[in-house]
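Our preliminary data section would be incomplete without showing what the modeling component actually yields. Below, a chain of 357 amino acids is followed by its predicted structure, encoded as tokens that our downstream tools consume directly.
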Amino acid sequence: MDWSFLSFLQKKEVAAFDIGSNSIKLVQLRQTKKGWELVKMGIAELPPEAIVDGSVIDSMTVTNTLKELIAEHGVKAKDVVSALTGHSVIIKKVNFAVMTEEELSESIQWEAEQYIPFPIVEVNIDFQILGADTEGRGQMDVMLVAVKKDVINDYTNVIKEAGLNPVVIDVDSFAIENMLEINYPAAPGETIAVVNIGASITSISVIVNGQTVFTRAVPMGGNQFTEEIQRQMNISFKDAEAMKLGKAEGEVDTNTMNAAIETVSTNLSFEVRRSLDFFLGGSHGVNINKIFLCGGCAKAAGLLSMMQDKTGMPVEMADPFKGITVSPKDFDEEKLKELAPYFCVAVGLATRRFGDR
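Predicted structure:
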């Protein structure tokens, strides 16, 4: 390995694009002696049905939105980091017999086959060795990641069509792990959960000692809040969305709207509780110290306190810019604070460089 070449690649400018179901988020960071500095950020909405459940449906619209975001913010970097989410991504902590990384690389295809619900030829597989198991059975814990090739191709194609070069395709939960690392350094032995609420999918992950050891995708998100407001108030999806975001024109029946939001918040909180109980049931002696909320709907009225109540755990809104240098000359502090939950994945992606493991 030519390390000088690798370090050159790692210093190359990259742009991070978090391509979600209802918007694309852009972040560019610069690494300085003091840490990370925000260079560019932006967000562009996608129409409904452009991306559904993590799958690209209308590639031309996604490509054009990327191009508009690049032009609007004067992005010069061509190398791009992006992420995948949803049911096409399988992440499992599994046990294999102790072996070297090289040995596992050679045998991972047939070792992984029993854990993947898709034909093995249809997926790309990666792994990370977490270490020897704690029970001394000559086994080691491995984080196994499998993604359907056609989904990767869909995302890389829209990025290439926008005139960009996809150098890293990450997984959203791992990107959030990177974001937390630079903003909320973990104490030794600390276990935290992250609930990332997207438009159609909520990703729940657990991080132990800085490493993701459990993930689950739930088919609930911001769209469910909108649909419940639409149902209870008998209005269009578009009007319900505007109401949810506080952009409705005219008088708003806040009691009915809040009741709709509370219904979905309760269901989502129970779903998170179920997922974390499942993780804790198979992890003896582990306690979750805190839950971080991310994603556009993390700020839904009353959701944070509802989740705290239903899970019995401390819940905090994650701020992806907390540990990043931000020039008040270039970025509006209030706008940054308002948009922060949307950018948890994008900030984590922006710390990645070609050549990273």
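The CA atoms of residues 50 and 142 lie 35 Å apart. The domain at 185-317 is CATH 3.30.420.40 (Nucleotidyltransferase; domain 5). Preliminary results of this kind motivate Aim 1 of the renewal.
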